[in-house]
Write a structure and sequence with these properties.
mainly alpha
Length: about 150
């Protein structure tokens, strides 16, 4: 455990942890979820499938969840449709709306990804006391709020 009793040490520790933790999680996630069964998609594709969700969503909602443009999402969706992870369907009420749903293959990938996150979260929580979990959850909420509002 690092000594974070003064502002400078706390600042350095927080910066170091944020930068390295992000990179470590991305690397670990890629190793864990891109298995032989799902070797034809990327980590980013997995996150697109997560944004589609079990019940499906329209392109605008998915793009907003991922904080990307619909144009960028279209490129990713074209590849996922071609690989049979998702299906496109136009809305009967408004033909301009394109709804995306997971195929059986997409649902399997979605569940595999969710299982990784569940395993990771459970492993972290096992190491924490109830008080530490409360503090960590609050700190992560604050970080999340900061990153969501950054640059807006």
């Amino acid at each position: 455990m690092r000594n974070v009793t003064d502002f400078t040490n706390a600042r350095e520790t927080i910066n170091d942890v944020l930068v390295h933790l992000f990179n470590e999680i991305m690397k670990l996630e890629e190793q864990a979820i891109i298995t032989e069964e799902f070797s034809d998609i990327t980590n980013n594709d997995m996150h697109v499938l997560e944004a589609v969700g079990v019940k499906g969503n329209n392109m605008t909602t998915i793009a907003n969840k991922l904080n990307i443009t619909v144009g960028s999402l279209t490129t990713a969706m074209n590849a996922l449709v071609k690989k049979h992870y998702v299906e496109r369907n136009r809305s009967e009420k408004d033909r301009r709306i394109v709804n995306i749903t997971l195929t059986q293959k997409g649902l399997a990938a979605y569940r595999h990804h969710a299982a990784f996150h569940d395993e990771m979260t459970t492993a972290v929580m096992k190491k924490l006391s109830p008080e530490q979990m409360q503090v960590l959850a609050g700190a992560l909420d604050n970080l999340s709020e900061f990153f969501r509002s950054y640059g807006k």
